Amino acid sequence: MTELRSSLLALVLVTTGWAGCIGTADDSLDANRAGLDEASSIQVVDEDEEAIAFAQVTQYAAGEVLTVTSANASGALAAEELTPSAERVLVTADGYEDWEGSVEDLGDQIRLANATERVQPEPSADRDRLSLLAPLQLGSAYMADRPETCNVNNCGASEPVIEVAGDGTIYVSGVCCVGGSPPIWFSQDDGRSFQLLRGDVLRDSFGIEGDFAIDETGNMYFSDISVASGYLSSWDEDQEHRSTIPAGPFVPPVDRPWIEAGPEDTAWFLYNQVTSTLLYKSTDGGITWTLQQEFPGALGYFESGPGLEELWVAADDHLWHSEDGGETFEQLEEIPRPSDEGQRFMSYETLGVDEAGNVWAVYDWSNGTSDAYHIYAVKRSPDGEWSQPVRVSPDQGTHHLPWADASAEGSLALAWYGTLDDEAGPNEVDEDAQWELFTAATIDGTEDDPGFQLAQPEPALVHEGPMNRKLLDFLQVEIGPEGAVHIAYAQDREGQQDERTEYVRSTTGLDLAREDYLNGP
């Protein structure tokens, strides 16, 4: 475990705890790089070591100056914010910026810089690295005192979905419980805080699980299902609820919906059945739907792009392609595997389509010589040539439930659950096996060696013991318009009765942004 940790890229984190106090030294540094290490609150003292204030970090991203909120000696937060200025700022180690001026220590790696000049160094390759900020828990924690029924107000949620709009708004949802409509949270401050998105009585009363899509005008759609039908709710770019309408009826049973939005009120709705996957299309904003295609296999998934009418479906180990909005599909080659021996875990084979038309397929694979699973990525170029599958996960342990997204040409971001403690199958590991969240990304996907970078948040622990669907069937990854990696995942690391959804995002040190972001304005 320690050996692997040392090989992972440096992470940026903000967790609870005291970081020490400001010293009185006025050491002059020509190129100061200050950073954060296990602190979200800083106790400020005067020369006599009398506590005079607290500074609590409320805004943070690598490469950005911190915004802090002051507090009096008793710890009560003051109303005003101490926005850093050119004379008095907090700077971070992963900001890739040099500062001239005096500094005051705030603990091992935290400094308050009385900067006189902000210096932007020349870009260098070693600064294009993947690192993660601190996770943020969404949903309430209801355990022994949970109500008999759950709803959007008391749901921790798992099996999350995530979507990022062109204006930077982040949407997250997750499975609450059977009979409890899934909550929808949104953030408009780069994921620092989330609010519960309200709908109408119909939206908040029905459904089990859903998926997001955002159209070219910024309207957000959320598809939701019941046993034999579905619902389509929509909100405008200002998070004002527009409508909730029955979507269907679809052919039952209806399980796990996926939705994509196209131009001019076009939407596609794909859902899983016991032995097949069905694709429906709407051209009137979801009021009516027409069956377009039935695919073999019960765990189909699809993505759109780069063309407005292009659809890609992964079903039954094959890739399917449409260039006419789903009117017709061509069954393409079988998705390549690392070896003839072995097997893919029966989970979703997710896809990522970049702006140049490279299509990635990502899956967990056991090579047949052991029970352990590893995460692989394989790319189909626009000319139809497949790359060799590349193992992304570490050699050690077993790895499970990957998800992926692509954006700029050659980019790919992944996240998955993995344990380094056991090499059995995900459902057969020891009771004390520690499962963690892993993230990887590359901007060199068109090269023979994509050079994936690994990173983990802190805390990375999500689960202990065999999986056995404890965190349900997947997590999700989305590359935002700013080039950051956004991840929604589930955890029950504290032994609570119900899973909780957490959100984490990367810095923009490794820029995965595409030129034209498709989701919204």
List keywords for this structure.
521 residues, mainly beta, Neuraminidase, five-stranded antiparallel β-sheet, 38 strands
Brief characterization of the structure:
The protein has 2 helices and 38 strands.
Mind sketching the topology for me?
Elements (H helix, E strand, L loop, with lengths): L1 H6 L19 E6 L8 E5 L5 E9 L7 E5 L5 E6 L6 E2 L7 E8 L5 E9 L16 E3 L19 E7 L5 E6 L8 E4 L7 E2 L4 H5 L4 E5 L5 E6 L4 E6 L5 E7 L7 E7 L5 E6 L3 E7 L7 E7 L4 E4 L6 E5 L2 E5 L7 E5 L8 E2 L5 E4 L5 E8 L7 E7 L9 E2 L6 E8 L6 E8 L14 E9 L10 E3 L5 E4 L11 E4 L5 E7 L8 E6 L16
Antiparallel strand pairs: 1-7, 2-3, 3-4, 4-5, 6-8, 7-8, 9-38, 10-11, 11-12, 12-13, 14-15, 15-16, 16-17, 18-19, 19-20, 20-21, 22-23, 23-24, 24-25, 26-28, 27-28, 28-29, 29-30, 31-32, 32-33, 33-34, 33-35, 36-37, 37-38
Give an account of the 3D structure:
Strand 20 and strand 21 (290-296) form a beta hairpin. This protein is globular. The chain has helices at 2-7, 201-205; strands spanning 27-32, 41-45, 51-59, 67-71, 77-82, 89-90, 98-105, 111-119, 136-138, 158-164, 170-175, 184-187, 195-196, 210-214, 220-225, 230-235, 241-247, 255-261, 267-272, 276-282, 290-296, 301-304, 311-315, 318-322, 330-334, 343-344, 350-353, 359-366, 374-380, 390-391, 398-405, 412-419, 434-442, 453-455, 461-464, 476-479, 485-491, 500-505. It is an all-beta fold. It contains two helices and 38 strands. Strands 26, 27, 28, 29 and 30 form a five-stranded antiparallel sheet that branches. Strands 31, 32, 33, 34 and 35 form a five-stranded antiparallel sheet that branches.
